[in-house]
Amino acid sequence: MRCASALLVALALGALASAVGGRAASGGFRATTTIRVTATAGDARYLVDKAPEGYPNKGDVIRETSTLRNAVAQFGRPRGAVVGRDTWVTTVVTPPFARLDVRETTDLPGGTIRARGTVTVLQTTGTFQVVGGTGAYRDARGTITLKNLNSSGTRGLSVYRLRIP
For residue 84, is pLDDT > 80? Predict the structure, then answer.
C-alpha cells in the first residue's frame, strides 16, 4: 500500500482557492484566482481492495488525505500556515497504476472545490479539471496543476487556476 500512497501523494496534492463572495448576475466569470499550496501526505487506505489484497488491482479504490499549507502568503496567513485539507479518491483502471481515475475534494474556508482527471504512474506532474464546488466556490471552473517536491512523493505543490462566476 505504500506504493499506492506515494503515487497518490505525488499526483494528488490538492490546493485552496480564496473565498470570493457574490455571484455574477450575467452568468459569466467575474474573478480569476491563482492559489499555491503545498501538501503533505496524510492517511491512505483502500476503500475497495480486490484480491490479491494490498496490491493495486483493476477496480480497487484508494482514498488519501493531505494537509495543505500556504506556499506563499495568502488567505491572510503567512507562508507555511495550515490552510486546509484535501481528499483524493482514486480508482485503478489499468493495474498496476498504469491508469488511475481520480476525484478530488478540497475543504476550504467558505466551501469546497471538486476536481477530476486521469493519471499514470510515470507522471511526476499532472493537471486536473476543476468541475465545481460548494459555497463560495459553487460553479468554479479551471485547473489544478500538481508537481512533486520530493522523490518519495510525500510532499508536493498544487497550483489552482480558477474562474469563479
Answer: yes
